[in-house]
Design goal:
This protein has helices at 3-16, 25-31, 52-65, 117-126, 143-149, 156-159, 195-198, 232-245, 256-266, 289-304, 317-328, 330-334, 351-365, 394-414, 439-452, and strands spanning 21-22, 45-47, 69-72, 89-92, 99-103, 108-111, 166-173, 178-181, 206-214, 222-229, 248-255, 278-285, 310-313, 340-345, 370-376, 381-387. Strand 15 and strand 16 (381-387) form a beta hairpin. 36% of the residues lie in helices and 20% in strands. It folds into four domains: 3-92, 2-Layer Sandwich (Uridine Diphospho-n-acetylenolpyruvylglucosamine Reductase, domain 2), CATH 3.30.43.10; 99-214, Uridine Diphospho-n-acetylenolpyruvylglucosamine Reductase, domain 3 (2-Layer Sandwich), CATH 3.30.465; 222-331, 2-Layer Sandwich (Alpha-Beta Plaits); 338-440, Alpha-Beta Plaits (2-Layer Sandwich), CATH 3.30.70.2740. Helix 1 packs antiparallel against helix 3, helix 8 (232-245) runs antiparallel to helix 13 (351-365) and helix 13 (351-365) runs antiparallel to helix 14 (394-414). By secondary structure, it is of the alpha+beta class. It is globular. It contains 15 helices and 16 strands. The strands form three sheets. It has a seven-stranded antiparallel beta sheet, with helices on both faces. The chain has a five-stranded antiparallel beta sheet with strand order 5-6-9-7-8.
């Protein structure tokens, strides 16, 4: 380690204590990255604050000494937003992981940013309530990171995004100032709601140091249907039919190729004998015999119309969880192939035509690459995963995928879509931001960055330069 690095570590230790600063190689590699594999981590140090005051002191020190800070939560991001590649100091929130307060009347919980998503879900369950934002990384992602990226997940069609559950927050800005926003109020018509600037800002405006989150009534007897379909147009017909009859909680899709990978890797069984090109997974609350009969009636109608080929319905919570694994285990299963991920969205009605166009683009450019489709088709968010061939070096694979991304995002732009539906911009989507945001919008965002972080110490180089 360099003398400069040792001097920096000593300055950080004066704030958090010497045992809360790491500069060893292993720590720098672990805490300097997220789940992406494109950029190599190269932080100068890792620091673990334990209080809001320590975070403020770290930000002030960064301004004084001229170094940059990168926030680190569960490090499950997929756009490089938590990657420290240029000698930054990583601020890891693992120690700030306590649930601080709970109000049964308000149905609100106050927590620190390092609380694990699953921890909050379990806390809500213990109180007879429900935290509905859910996704595959809930066992390791942190609430602060979820808010900083406005995480979505599998139940957006019913419960919305993380944004919809944030009732208040405390934020340390790029100057070290502490802002307390909204105070858990349901109604607050007093000008700009700054809370929503920090939701999805990826730590570029300030660091979230406390959150007040709303909780909901838990769903009753969640029941899962999995249907096989021949094409995505049929999936839209299925969605419309079920939405017309039931208040559905989730509507997901995945391809036969994705299913085969999950069955091979996880030892899971095919849900039924019939193979489809795609599969739709529907979850609804089985609140009465009438609801169940309605679900079965819609399913039979879909088969009669030729929209669905076959299907199965869970009979208990164990079966429901097993069917969910067919969808939820995809990301982990394909991670060993070093996939190039695109997290894109368009209006729900335009998904079939859009997917067909993008699939044709990728297949034409790289016919030897395997393409895995899955996603939250009920809210227009689809995940395109291109799997790296074993013999192809990682750098060359990412270079080729990066080139074809321009064609993909031209299609996204033509459909009025987003180049990042729920994973954020970070480093990976930064070159493509203009496909979803106008020059005027980007100029406004840069102006806001200047207001909250004038010296550019907060996660610089993310979203835009």
């Amino acid at each position: 380690m360099s003398a400069m690095q040792q001097t920096l570590a000593a300055s950080l230790a004066e704030i958090v204590g010497p045992d809360r600063v790491n500069i060893d190689h292993e720590s720098l590699q672990v805490f300097g990255k997220d789940w992406t594999k494109v950029h190599e981590p190269n932080p100068a140090a890792i620091v673990f604050p334990g209080s809001i005051e320590e975070v403020q002191a770290l930000v002030r020190l960064a301004n004084k000494q001229g170094f940059a800070l990168v926030p680190s939560g569960g490090r499950t991001g997929l756009s490089g937003g938590a990657v420290a590649a240029n000698g930054e100091v990583v601020v890891a929130f693992d120690r700030m992981n306590q649930i601080l307060d709970f109000s049964a009347v308000d149905r609100q919980v106050v927590c620190q940013p390092g609380v694990i998503t699953e921890q909050l879900q379990q806390f809500a369950d213990d109180k007879g309530l429900f935290y509905p934002v859910d996704f595959a990384s809930s066992g390791s992602s942190q609430i602060g990171g979820n808010v900083a990226t406005n995480a979505g997940g599998i139940k957006v069609i019913r419960y919305g995004l993380t944004r919809d559950w944030v009732m208040g927050m405390k934020v340390v800005t790029g100057t070290g100032e502490l802002l307390e926003l909204n105070h858990g109020l349901v109604k607050n018509a007093t000008g700009y709601d700054l809370r929503h600037l920090f939701i999805g800002s990826e730590g570029t405006l300030g660091f979230i140091v406390e959150l007040t989150m709303a909780l909901a009534t838990p769903p009753k007897d969640p029941t899962v249907l999995v249907l096989a379909v021949d094409d995505l147009e049929s999936t839209m017909h299925v969605l419309q039919a079920f939405q017309g009859a039931l208040d559905i909680c989730a509507f997901e899709f995945f391809s036969e190729k994705a299913l085969r990978h999950v069955m091979a890797e996880k030892g899971l069984q095919r849900p039924f004998a019939t193979e489809g090109t795609f599969y739709a997974l529907i979850e609804f609350e089985n609140t009465s015999e009438a609801v169940l009969e309605s679900a079965m009636s819609v399913f039979e109608h879909c088969v009669e119309q030729g929209w669905a080929l076959d299907g199965t319905m869970s009979q208990n919570i164990t079966q429901a969880r097993a069917l969910w694994r067919l969808r939820e285990d995809i990301s982990e299963t394909i991670s060993r192939f070093t996939p190039y991920k695109n997290d894109i969205s368009v209006q729900v009605s335009r998904v079939p035509a859009f997917l067909k166009e993008v699939d044709n683009i990728v297949t034409a450019q790289y016919p030897d690459f395997e393409i895995i489709w899955f996603g939250h088709i009920g809210d227009g968010n689809v995940h395109l995963n291109i799997l790296k061939p074993d013999a192809l070096p990682k750098e060359e694979f990412f270079r080729q995928c990066g080139e074809v991304s321009y064609d993909i995002f031209e299609a996204v732009k033509s459909y009025g879509g987003s180049v990042s539906a729920e994973h954020g911009v970070g480093l990976l989507k930064k070159p493509y931001l203009q496909y979803s945001r106008s020059e005027g919008e980007i100029a406004c965002m840069k102006a806001l960055k200047q207001v909250f972080d004038p010296n550019k110490v907060m996660n610089p180089g993310k979203i835009f330069d």
